[in-house]
Amino acid sequence: MLPEEMFQSFESEAISAASIAQVHKAVTHEGQEVAVKVQYIDLQDRFHGDIKTVDILLYLIGLMHEKFDFSWVLKDLAHTLESELDFENEGRNGEKCARDLKHLDYLYVPTIHWNKTSKRVLTAEWIDGIKISDLDGIKKMGLSIKDINHKLCKCFADQIFHSGFVHADPHPGNVYVRKSEQSGKAELVLLDHGLYDYLKPNQRKSLCQLYKAIVLKDEANMVKYSNELGVKEWYLFSCCLVQRMVYVPSRPYKFNFFDFSALKKLSVIGKKALMEEVMTLHDELNDIARSMPTAMHWIFR
Predict the structure, then answer these.
(1) Can you point out the beta strands (E) in 155-214?
(2) What is the pTM for the complete model shown?
């Protein structure tokens, strides 16, 4: 069936495009505005060939440069990436997300039109809103950035620590903001539910306790809960987790790797010492990435 037959109107020019699909605006025969996400026609055919090609390239790079062997990353993530190509699965993910977060009255997930959805076409309720990164637009709507920040953190904290079902691609284009008709305050809209992963209950508990240990500067529990997550290099893991240097007495550091302005001001000798430190950190970071639960790769992302 042609789009012109399935919908009352269908805009042939895409309003947005990404790596696996493009989105068109349409109106159903019932008069509802919808977003129609259409997968690129040859993507499913190319996927397995592309994955195999990347796998071979990563293997060859690993042979030439042992420290840059990242073929294991592809093996861990290939299945998750493949599931993103199934738009029916994306629809189910969105509905599960809505159920998991239904207690948050400021979080909304667009309704799926299942009678117009298949594995390569997803039709969902049209959303009028702006990207969460559009600070000027948010201010023009009279909404509080502080309130939005709190709501965004609460939303993803609930996924990571409570349900374990985590949206793994929350870039600004997938998180919209609009003004609630009921409260007049900010409402968040989560879009694009193709990429999810699941943190097991024991992993969520250990991660929660690790965050607590970092805040309290409790070295013993940083070690304990990092180990429970499979990571021996607890200090660097903790720094990566909170994206800042963690101040603990037993681990004085030469450089603050998160202070980019300070790093730029280093002398020639300082920059040489920094490079030596980075080479050591590279191996440790690689070990951390290999050791931690696969689902946490998406959280770090």
Answers:
(1) 165-167, 175-179, 186-190, 196-198
(2) 0.85
